[in-house]
Structure formats: structure tokens, C-alpha cells
Amino acid sequence: MTIPSVARRYARALYMEAAGVPRIHEDMELIGETLGASADLTRCLESPVIARERKLSVLEALFASRTDELTMGFVRLVVRGRREAQLHAIATAYRELRDEADGILHAQVRAAAPLESDDIVRLRYTLEERTGKHVVLQPHESDDLLGGIVLRIGDVVYDGSARHHLAQLHTRLSADR
Length: 177
Hints:
This protein has helices spanning 5-18, 22-37, 39-46, 52-63, 69-80, 87-101, 117-131, 162-175; strands spanning 104-111, 134-141, 148-153, 156-161. By secondary structure, the chain is an alpha+beta fold. The chain has a four-stranded mixed sheet with strand order 2-1-3-4. Helix 7 links the parallel strand 1 and strand 2 (134-141). It is elongated, with a radius of gyration of 21 Å.
């Protein structure tokens, strides 16, 4: 998921305001998980037809009794700023800020077949050694890969797929002609 810069700005503002308040971290996780799990709620927040007041009342019904007042004040600010469609992205950006501060790095690994647990442990260990951070791997099986793995850490992609290696070999052989 590419996070828009406006979502990052809102998340950073809340993160600075919350300054280590664990409850706010939990609240943003709740909001992110709830919005991520409900396509109907997402459509509601993105709809230009639904009145902003109605969207706010839905969000308050869902979260007011379950979150800190600072969090709800922030949600109200987001809605008043006409950014309610960005609320899920804001929650995701907030989690990224918190993880960065805690030294946690998320990496997605795509492989042609399911990775063995030993391979995942070795890859995690190698990444932790190179980055100095705790690495959380998210492995995915990908039908479009012939072999090897593709690793994504943030916006950086490390392509160790068989297709990529074959393309590099083809380029080198073509250049030698």
C-alpha cells in the first residue's frame, strides 16, 4: 500500500502529540484493523454522496467508547479536514512511525513456493544483522515467480527471482556479442 503524503503528515502530527502514550498506539491499531477489515466502511468514508456529519457519526459510534478522547478528537479533525477517506492510510502511516521508533522493520517476501521455516529464520537473521533492527517478515506465495524470492522493505525491492537473474544473464550475453 502506497501511503499518500497527506496521510503521513496527519499521522506524524498525531504521533508527535501522543508522544509515547500507549493507549493512542492501541487506538490507531484498532482503527486501522477495523477499516482494513470492512470494505463497506471504507466505501462509506470514500463516498462523496454521504454527508460528512453522517460519516462522523458512524466513526463515533464505532470508536468513541473504545478509544481515548485524544484519538477521537483526532478523528474529528480528520473528518473536518475532509480527509476521512485517508483514515486507513493515516492509521497505517502511524503504525509505521511507531515501528520505526521501536526499531521494527517490516519486509514482504514473495516466493514461488511456500518458504520453509528454516529459510524464514535465516532470512530474518540476515536482515536483522544488516539493518540492526528487529525484522518482521511477511511471506507470500506468488504464482508469477519461477523461482527465487523478491524482498520488499518499504519502497526498496531486492529481486532475487529466477526471471530477474535470467534477464540479467540475457543482457550480459547480448552485450558480449
